[in-house]
Amino acid sequence: MKKLIYLFLLLPIGVLQAQVIANPPDPIIECDVNNPGDQKEIFNLRLRESQVINGQTNVVVTYHLTSGEALSNIGAFQDPENYENIVSPQTIFIRLQNTNNGSDWDVTTMEIIVPIIPVADQLPEDIFIDEGDGDGMAQFDLTENESLILGSQDPFEFQFAYFTSMEDANANDNAITNPEDYPNASNPQLIYVRFAPTIDICDVAILDFSIETDGSLAIDQVFDASIDLYPNPVINTLNVNLEEVGQYEISLYTVNGQRLQSIEFVGNQQAVDVSQLPTGVYFLQISGDKKETVKKVIKQ
Q1: Percentage helix, strand, coil, to 5, in the chain?
Q2: pLDDT value at position 221?
Q3: What is the pLDDT of residue 147?
């Protein structure tokens, strides 16, 4: 037993130490505020240093331009707290070195990014659909304007989102969930498009255009006295009564145009379960006999 203990004590200290691991950190993103448009900013590369170290002790972190320099431990940045990127995005190579063991080190990478400033090549055009039925309702592809807005810009560098109010567009909240198949909520209706880089935390452009179809649509008005909805406001079950027996389809939409459910039935009465819906305003579209009607539903 004494011999085993003696041999254990003779092992090199480096063998007993766990190898350091350079943990990949999150990207650092800086908005393009200095000389906007050049996609260059000053970065403090040490912002993510704690992620790289991840609680390890007796280590030092250096930053390098290339993998070769990081692997060879040469060319470390002299002022990593004030580093100006060369391109965006740019990969920075990080070396984590054990200060007690020169042969114990690891290398990882970190992205530094200055998002591009979106500039519309052309303003979006209004969209008009002539269906010929005069009901004031149509399904719109709101994405038709994206090629105009982008022009020759790389579509993979940008993203689009569509909204029914300027407030939501600015806040990037309540985006229309089906912009390629959107049923208008009024006629005409103003649509707001948020044109942003793929990393949407800096500069964005808010543009607007109108969608319109033939006929008139006023959601706040009673369209057809022969259709009765009750109770409205509703808590659990909305009853739909029609004057004439026929074949109908009922579709329930959010105010952002997301279709929640559709029911096809034959007759003149139908119950719609809304018990699981959040409180708010919805639109009920009733189609049948080459006619369409839209009514506002308030869920309590």
Answers
A1: 15, 40, 40
A2: 39
A3: 95
Which has more pLDDT, 118 or 16? 118
C-alpha distances (whole Å) from 33 to each of 42, 66, 117, 132 are 10, 27, 10, 50
pLDDT reported for residue 224? 52
Q: Tell me the pairing of strands 127-129 and 205-213.
A: parallel
Q: Give the pLDDT score at 18.
A: 58
> Rounded to whole angstroms, how far apart are CA atoms 107 and 65?
12
Q: Are 203 and 170 in contact (CB under 8 A)?
A: no
Alpha-carbon gap, residue 108 to 93, rounded angstroms: 6
All structural domains of the chain, each given as residue ranges with its CATH number in brackets, are 2-113 (2.60.40), 127-213 (no CATH), 227-299 (2.60.40.1930)
pLDDT in tens, 154-189: 999 999 999 988 989 999 998 998 899 998 888 888
**Closest among 206, 162, 184, 180 to 255, alpha carbons compared:** 184
Q: Helices in the chain by DSSP H: which ranges?
A: 2-10, 13-16, 49-53, 67-72, 146-150, 166-171
Model-level pTM? 0.62
Place of tokens 């027996």: 245
pLDDT, tens digit, 9 for 90 and up, residues 195-244: 999 999 999 999 999 999 887 654 433 345 578 888 888 899 999 988 88
181 contacts 221 by C-beta, under 8 angstroms: no
Q: Which residue's entry shows tokens 């959010």?
A: 254
Assess contact for 97 and 64: CB atoms under 8 A.
Answer: no
Cα separations in angstroms, 292 against 135, 172, 288: 7, 32, 7
Strand partners, 90: 112
CA distances for 99 relative to 61, 178, 206, 272, angstroms: 10, 56, 52, 70
